[in-house]
Task: structure prediction
Amino acid sequence: MTGGQDTAVERFAAARLWAAGRAPYLASALFALTPLVHDTAPPRLPADEHWNVHLNPDAVRDTPVPELGWWLIHQVGHLLRSHHARAEPYREPESRLRWDRAADAEINDDLDGGPAGAISPETLGLPDGLLAERYAELLDLIDVPPHLVGCGRAPFTGPSAMTALERELLARAVAAEIEARGGATGGWRRWAEAELRPEVDWRARLAALVRRGLAQAAGRVDYSYRRPSRRAGAVPSIVLPALVRPVPRIAVVIDTSGSVTRTGLTQALGELDGVLRAAGHRWIEAICCDTEAYPVQRVRRADQVELAGGGGTDLRAGLAAAAGADVVIVLTDGDTPWPERRPRPYVVVCLFGERGSAPPWASTVRVPRPPADAAAASAGRIGNET
Result:
């Protein structure tokens, strides 16, 4: 190494120690970084997907060690949150720049003490706590102030020092350290929770529960004289009934009270539409309900449902109206009284957000509430549209 390269590596080591002292729960990730020194590196220590940090010797020499350490914590955030892999849909140069800024905003929303001009939700005028994908959508609607700077991208990908499995194990070890130590900021705590206890995607769970209910309903067979039995030829003097397997009747009870947003209902109805079509059902019997059940709407697609209501919430009326169905799917925020006894149909409850609850006799899938933003606010409540 030349003298400039030696100095860059020494200052990188000092910055890493500073970063580990500030965020000890990230120490194992910080010490997994491999420095690569070359003159083409951008000044803010960008890291590639193989955990190589690219050091520009002149920039590293002229930047204070605490600022270098701050950028190392920032780069570890990119790596642990898989921003390189999540950037795949943003290949075009303009959309990739938007993604880079959005990824910076996801990390820096709770990383204090950054250098002047660093991108963050606050400097962009956007809400905290969102994922980079959501920030990318919002950045498409605003002008980014020219004085704000991101960390930049590595000019090339260096050698791989860890396998994909080793990187996954490192991420889980960091998540366990965050949970054990405490003291991490909110964004890191949320990441650790998701890393250690990943949730099954609500769409997959909804599809599985609906298929289970349809299978149970379709398994109910009965005798019918509407068509002859295949054994009728053996005893021509006797009319034998045939076994029939009825097509399950499905009802969707839609909570149209004032506390449920149209955004959430549209999202869940769209997913439900796909599930039922995949199961071979071409009709949806929709029952809107606030404190009363509105007339049944039999439609072919979920977007044909006309939402009615907007008052208080008591879904017992909606469940009573759907009592003749084989499978009932309830879309609600859970802020409602429930029947004390299990209804006859198989019931799946889709809960919006984190506050509401479903009865113990129902199969439940929790649907994350869409982030509060300008688009959701302009959509308004159902009660304002009816």
The first strand starts at residue 34 and ends at 37. The chain has 14 helices and ten strands. Residues 3-22 form the longest helix (20 residues).
